[in-house]
Amino acid sequence: MKTSTKISATLLLAGTLLSVSLTAQWNPINPGTLENIQTVYIDNDFNMLAGGKNGILLHSSSSGLNWNNISVSTELNINDIGFYDSNTGYLMGEDGLFMKTTNGGSNWTQYPTGNLAEFEGISVLNQTTVVGCGDFGTILKTSDAGTTFNVVPSGTSVLLHKVFFTDENTGYCVGELGTLLKSIDGGDSWSAVVTNTSNELNTIYFSPSGTGIIGGANGMILKSVSGGESWSAKNTPLNDDLFGLTFVSGQTWYAVGNDGALIRSDDNGESWIAEATPTVSRLMDIGFSDSGTGIVVGRDGAMLRTVVAITGTEETFKDIEVAFYPNPVKDLCAVNLNRDDSDGLSFHIYDLLGNDLVQVDNPGNKTIKLDLSNLDSGLYFYTVENKDRILLTSKFVKD
Prior knowledge:
Layout: E1 9-12, E2 27-28, E3 37-44, E4 47-52, E5 57-60, E6 68-69, E7 78-83, E8 89-93, E9 98-101, E10 109-110, E11 119-124, E12 130-134, E13 139-142, E14 150-152, E15 160-165, E16 171-175, E17 180-183, E18 191-192, E19 201-206, E20 212-216, E21 221-224, E22 232-234, E23 242-249, E24 252-257, E25 262-265, E26 273-274, E27 283-288, E28 293-298, E29 303-307, H1 314-317, E30 322-325, E31 332-337, E32 346-350, E33 356-361, E34 367-371, E35 378-385, E36 390-398
Antiparallel strand pairs: 1-34, 2-29, 3-4, 4-5, 5-6, 7-8, 8-9, 9-10, 11-12, 12-13, 13-14, 15-16, 16-17, 17-18, 19-20, 20-21, 21-22, 23-24, 24-25, 25-26, 27-28, 28-29, 30-31, 31-34, 32-33, 32-35, 35-36
């Protein structure tokens, strides 16, 4: 729950606007651990989770700038995390590890699966139905939130790395030797899909529009626009194995892999370019918030962060442009949201703990003068939000 201390706003005539520019520079973040971090889950800028070796589970409420340990009753490796909504989530990992949270990740309860497989992938179909995949071709499903589990025949004995469901019925699973499986009955049965490769396939993701991307060994990228029935290989600028990928917005995708490798596509996976990162660690997973905050995790506690401009639907993001000046600010600052139809939008300022310090509703195309003299010196975030999500985020420094 956000706490809000509103600061009065004085309306002025619109002046010169200095537009915010969001860059894609990847900066190292100290997560407070040197353990291998296998997975990252991002609900929003104020609720991010990362899990990894020896039961390490981290949480950030500060847009990924600071991370704290969450105590969980396991030292088994946490390999993947998935949520149904902001409260109900699950994780899976080593030796059949299966845990559930009902409060957004603050507390977790372990459920015995009766299975000792190393589960590497998880997909949450609804509040009580979860499918996991792992070694020896194991696919495990629960339909009652972990009370009982069924081992589903997969037709293979290879290591299965990731599973992704596009809806409650249709799911995909990837693994060794070019293995791709598809289910159309909620994970109760699976059939093989031809990929025309024997490369190890490590990760899979589908965009909301139905484009599927698979990442694998030797920089392999496969793309499908046919509901996962057929796949074509795309050129990438590297030969490093890819382990994590995600869709961001518009036509933008990212993938990460060995030796600090990170590649981006701006044309819906047709072509890819490399982006520099400040690490040579193996990067395992990547995720983005709706507002454009990106987090990458990897071996030996590697963690990177960026903020990118989000391209959304015309109705949601059209012409949103924020001017915030001066930055750094000492006492008084001016803010302008360059959008006349601001009904339902609000401007916020947050501290690093996620406390909502300033809220201006329906700001409109007017300059707002804010007195921030009562804020302590340090780094703060400002956002533009509607009732459902954060539409834009950036940061400023208070002197």
